[in-house]
Every structure is written in structure tokens, then in C-alpha cells.
Design goal:
Layout lengths: L1 E4 L15 H13 L2 H5 L2 E3 L5 E3 L1 H10 L3 E6 L5 H10 L9 H7 L2 H6 L12 H4 L4 E4 L10 E4 L3 H14 L5 H10 L1
Parallel strand pairs: 2-4
Antiparallel strand pairs: 1-4, 2-3, 5-6
Helix pairs in contact: 1-3
């Protein structure tokens, strides 16, 4: 790992990931408040200084006004390995343990750190008193979240479940659920 002027690092023009709006602002804030994390997770570049891993961090570092960034040069990769790295660096193989998260951290703090908390904190007392309906379906989003706990009046829960059933198999299902609960 070494530090280089940020101007030497070249964003990858074929990077398939984007970050915008609120998530980008949270990443910039995270870098401003905890720049030491960059040392622990440097930007990975090839021999030509093109980013293989960390394009969004580079973009946020620029927005935060950093003059230098930590990098690791992966100069022994083939072109095929570089292409594979770009994708695998952004794939989330694991799943979040939502119960553990809810018990160890506040939903507000997790949200501030950039984690998409798909629903409210169901451990809060006001939600425990309400009846809930549980609905399962596969592959909700990149985080691996597969169960939705709907805490609504029975009639509203039934209406939502019916809408979800009608949408099964459509590409926009996870977008619909995210918008319904998170916006």
C-alpha cells in the first residue's frame, strides 16, 4: 500500500457501479469523518493507475477534497482477472443478520453509515405491541434480505401482500418494496 496524489488515479470508464444522491453524500461524509478507513481499505488500481476496486470511494474522495489517497497496485493481473475483479469487488456474497444488527446498533446509526436498513427497527416497543404479518420471497436485494415483516393493520397488510403476489417474477419487485418501505 502506498499514498499517491489523487490526480494520478484514473476512474475506471467501464465500472458498472454507480452511487448518487443521498448514498453518495453519506459516503463523502464517511470519508470526511473516518479517513483512516481508507488506509485499511485502499483503492485497488492496475499498473496504469486505472481503478479496479474503489471507484465510488475515489469519487467521494474527490468530493471530500482529498489531495492523496491510499492505493494498492495490482500489476500482475491478466485483463480477464482485472475484469473479474471489477465485478467481484462489488458483489455482496454474504447476507446481513438483521436480528444481530437490530440488537447491536441503532437503525439510525446504520443508516448514517450507509447501510440500507429496509424497515424500521422491529425491536422498538411501539412495534412489539402491534400485530404483524410476515411475508417471504427470494432475493429481495443485494444485501440478501429475504423476509419482509409488515407491521400494518391486517387489511393494509393483506392489500400489500396481494400487490406483491401480482408482481412476482417482475424485475421491479425489489424496487417496489424498497420504495414502499424506505421512501
Amino acid at each position: 500500500m502506498k499514498r499517491v496524489p489523487i490526480s494520478q488515479v484514473i476512474p475506471n470508464p467501464t465500472n458498472p457501479r454507480i452511487i448518487k444522491d443521498d448514498k453518495f453524500k453519506k459516503l463523502v461524509k464517511s470519508i470526511e469523518e473516518f479517513p483512516e478507513m481508507l488506509e485499511l481499505r485502499p483503492i485497488v488500481v492496475d499498473a496504469n493507475m486505472v481503478v479496479l476496486g474503489g471507484n465510488m470511494r475515489l469519487k467521494a474522495c474527490l468530493a471530500a477534497g482529498l489531495k492523496e489517497v491510499p492505493i494498492i497496485v495490482a500489476d500482475k493481473l491478466t485483463d480477464a482477472q482485472k475484469a473479474e475483479f471489477v465485478i467481484k469487488d462489488n458483489v455482496g456474497f454474504g447476507e446481513w443478520d438483521w436480528d444481530l444488527l437490530a440488537n447491536e446498533w441503532s437503525a439510525e446509526l446504520l443508516d448514517e453509515w450507509g447501510l440500507n436498513v429496509p424497515l424500521w427497527n422491529l425491536n422498538e416497543p411501539e412495534y412489539q405491541k402491534k400485530d404483524s404479518t410476515e411475508y417471504d420471497f427470494e432475493n429481495f436485494d443485494n444485501s440478501g434480505f429475504t423476509t419482509i415483516k409488515i407491521v400494518l393493520e391486517d387489511e393494509k397488510a393483506k392489500e400489500l401482500i396481494d400487490r406483491i403476489d401480482l408482481m412476482k417474477g417482475e424485475k421491479n419487485l425489489s424496487e417496489f418494496v424498497y420504495e414502499y418501505f424506505c421512501n
